């Protein structure tokens, strides 16, 4: 059964993209942008994911090109997700 936290991530293609991309290594909003997602959409979803504790800004003191990384909470969710698809 899928829990509500995992459903929150899976319901949005952009949130799933962010979580899966950050699983590789920390990235800036610009590095997360692609032809399907504008930087404004990435930024607003990064803010939501930070407020919910799924990601953390690892460079909070710089103004531009902040880097974001996954928290343990989102790493556990990814493990649960991988178990579901295996």
What does this 3D model show about the protein?
This protein has 86 residues and is mainly α. The chain has helices at 4-10, 13-24, 29-32, 39-51, 72-85; strands at residues 55-57, 68-70. It is built from five helices and two strands, in the order H-H-H-H-E-E-H. It has a two-stranded antiparallel ribbon.
Tally of helical runs: 5
User: Helical percent range?
Assistant: 55-70%
What order do the SSEs take from the amino end to the carboxyl end, as H and E? Answer: HHHHEEH
Amino- and carboxy-terminal Cα gap: 14 Å
Mean pLDDT: 92
Question: How many runs of DSSP E, i.e. beta strands?
Answer: 2
Low-confidence stretches: none
For the largest sheet, list the strands in their spatial order. Answer: 1-2
Structural class: mainly alpha
What value does the Rg take, in angstroms? 13 Å
**Multimeric organization:** single chain
- What overall geometry do the principal axes of the alpha carbons give? globular
Beta-strand percent range:
5-15%
Biggest β-sheet, characterized? 2 strands, antiparallel
Question: What characteristics describe this protein?
Answer:
2 strands; two-stranded antiparallel ribbon; 86 residues; mainly alpha
In short:
The protein is mainly α. Helices cover 58% and strands 7% of the residues. The chain starts with a helix and ends with a helix.
